Amino acid sequence: MKNTAKNKWSIILGGSSGLGLATAKKLAQHNFNLIIVHRSRRSDLEQITADFEAIRQKGILLKNYNVDGTNPEKRTEVIEDIKTWIATDTIAVLVHSIAKGNLKPMHSEIEKELEHQDFTITLDAMAISLYDWTKDVVKNKLFATDTRIISFTSEGNTKAIPNYAAVSVAKVALEAITRNIALEFAPIGIKANCIQAGIVDTASLQMIPGYERIKDSALSRNPNKRLTTPEDIANAVYLLTMEEAKWITGTVIKVDGGESLQ
Amino acid sequence: MKNTAKNKWSIILGGSSGLGLATAKKLAQHNFNLIIVHRSRRSDLEQITADFEAIRQKGILLKNYNVDGTNPEKRTEVIEDIKTWIATDTIAVLVHSIAKGNLKPMHSEIEKELEHQDFTITLDAMAISLYDWTKDVVKNKLFATDTRIISFTSEGNTKAIPNYAAVSVAKVALEAITRNIALEFAPIGIKANCIQAGIVDTASLQMIPGYERIKDSALSRNPNKRLTTPEDIANAVYLLTMEEAKWITGTVIKVDGGESLQ
Amino acid sequence: MKNTAKNKWSIILGGSSGLGLATAKKLAQHNFNLIIVHRSRRSDLEQITADFEAIRQKGILLKNYNVDGTNPEKRTEVIEDIKTWIATDTIAVLVHSIAKGNLKPMHSEIEKELEHQDFTITLDAMAISLYDWTKDVVKNKLFATDTRIISFTSEGNTKAIPNYAAVSVAKVALEAITRNIALEFAPIGIKANCIQAGIVDTASLQMIPGYERIKDSALSRNPNKRLTTPEDIANAVYLLTMEEAKWITGTVIKVDGGESLQ
Amino acid sequence: MKNTAKNKWSIILGGSSGLGLATAKKLAQHNFNLIIVHRSRRSDLEQITADFEAIRQKGILLKNYNVDGTNPEKRTEVIEDIKTWIATDTIAVLVHSIAKGNLKPMHSEIEKELEHQDFTITLDAMAISLYDWTKDVVKNKLFATDTRIISFTSEGNTKAIPNYAAVSVAKVALEAITRNIALEFAPIGIKANCIQAGIVDTASLQMIPGYERIKDSALSRNPNKRLTTPEDIANAVYLLTMEEAKWITGTVIKVDGGESLQ
After folding, report:
1. What CATH number should be reported for the domain whose range is A8-256?
2. What are the TM regions of this chain, as residue ranges (chains A, B, C, D) (predicted)?
């Protein structure tokens, strides 16, 4: 994969904010064209349009689809549309940055408790959708002969956190799906990895009950004395798209400044 | 938990064959009364009836419900029925032995490939149902003040195996759910653990493509030179129901004679 | 292994205090005779003598050797002495509870820093000695045909803790040695496991700088709202000596009331 | 860390063959000057001299010390010598590629068995020496303000392999030391990681009994259908020296083409 080639595309699912947007900016610096799938509210569109325009200024092409990437019909529509314009270009990178988890306690006298459907919805959006996209892009023969698939997990993969069961389940599911993608799609040149991010102060984090405590705890644990930034994660995504990373597949890589060490 | 008490009950989900049936026999030897939920075909009923009768001969009570334990209406019916007869007795053990996984490749030119729904169905049956049952039994205040929840996982929790992605995902999901149950239901006396079984030569195994190769490989890897038996696993379940196991919670315990070591 | 047999012996290395002593008491209740190897100061001997006498009152035999169990000559002497009196009895359990770790920072302007020798001393005492004892007892044909080897590890196996590097290294080394013992001694009936204890308020803990903070943190994390006791661990050792545990080998089992979950 | 700077040095311990030599070549391409510590036999020196000369042709400086890097006196001598010529340059990368493990069975009627000393020697060379070098280079204030320490581990970190106990122990020890280095040296800008290499067909591998079987098994397991090469690992080392990797620390990263997945 030559990163300097103008005809390499990266799909970023969830690329209008947080880790996804930072990744878009970083990959654009390294000459990837971008297909960004995002679900954004009208009130955020002005900012997002400006962000995308700034990325285009770097001299790459950016196509965006403001649709729900977890909806199968929308996924089909996006892929069909891509086929109308992509010609002989290929997609060399797929980044999954969809965060849509339901946070509820398993057991409470006062709060609404986690239900079967909370697991299903969270798993659909945060885990199984990675397989759905991978399979459809493969079927439509849009991937390059050397493709990198990258998604994001968290320390919730081994820890239990109150209210966080559905997201924890989605994260371990995402990792298991990644392992099987790395195994079963290897014959067609796909490498798949998860990046385990430290605590990042994003909009998603701020919706978690106890958000301030989580932030403070991460700060005090981190031997490098700051939280993880979206740019830290985007940097790691970029490393995994490089030629030198082609033998790394089926793994979970911690990018947290050592936060999970203690 | 006094194991000698006649009024302690164990629910076994999937208790008419394999690991579940072996567990029923073992717990009956140690004076647990049994509620067995199983989904059995007419052709198997004669054998199952005989098995259950033999268990009753050990002097314990055995109630069985031949229904689909993963169906929410059936679950409600079973629990409502239990309430009609259980009086002041309590349920001190919940064993989850439901195996219903869809085995398909992620990528194949010739076979039917894994679909979104395969993940959903497998996750519902093999993972989320553990939470559904736990929550409903808690809500109906049927659990003892010291309760043990035990479910079964496999080496698919860290390994990728062709065709096995949906089951791998369900196993890691089950483990994550178990960790959160151990955390969030601790205040009401619940301990929850997974047993990671070695390869057992059950009906479920025999449905996996490449079954003979899996068996041979497990045999040759196992330093104790045999496959895992349902009785090995039932023994470990019994250990986890003992008074001495009350500080073990939120863990995955390998019971495989060392098969996963190499 | 019949636990009721009077002629089964358990060696406990480090059996005069903490986890080792609690284990001695528990195994004595279940009719194990005991060989206790301990290194005790003169000032502690009165208490230890009383503890051992109380154990003997349970009707089992207890032999104790007040020697440094990590010294190879002393090990040879103890084993030679055992051979003079054990006749046709066998050793069915070996418990390793030797804690002798050097706690120093890797990097400090003011404190003495960790040196090469600190690793060597800690590894010798807390890890390699398990192999030394196992090998020598095997060579002298003193083990039963079904033997259980049990040792103790901690969350330091995956976490980095300031000042604790040498002990962390010894713990992962102990676990790796245990895995190879489980593999390579399987043909002669040995099963080997580690118990990962939660924070126990022992003399060893009290020597760690920041001891109070470690205790408080463990308490606040533990979903079962107390620290781990020596008796919790002794209970788990007992479970691993039972007939029903014979298929559990080469594993690390957490016994911490869920403390490591979050 | 600007990789283009001429005044950045990398120390490579064990840099005359295998992973170390491949790493030297890769880092030289990216403008690192090299200090190579190696213990080479006279018969290999002609080849090694040619290799080093070829590296120098890339336009970087290469200093080599043919001494036993695990010997404390030699380590002191090398560091003292470096101080005589390094002036204001700094060492920004330390790569540990020392392989010197004793391979013996734990239990055998016919072969020489593993002894206490085999563990000690292997741990000294393959694990503790990483700390020794780190500490001494820190004490002599030779590290850059942003330094990357990289060492090599293997699947022996979780697997038990006959004859391989001492190396397995050294690998888990190396990983634990790396975690504590990442934690305790973070305040002075050090990041430390291990690369878990797949099976590489090196001289070290060829000394393992059963070498052909290990190679065949790795090949058949690897979804990307080849063994790992020294260049694969050198590529990953290079990634970890990049500016973009600065938030990755305290981790183990698999670089094996997916070999360990199944």
Report:
1. 3.40.50.720
2. none
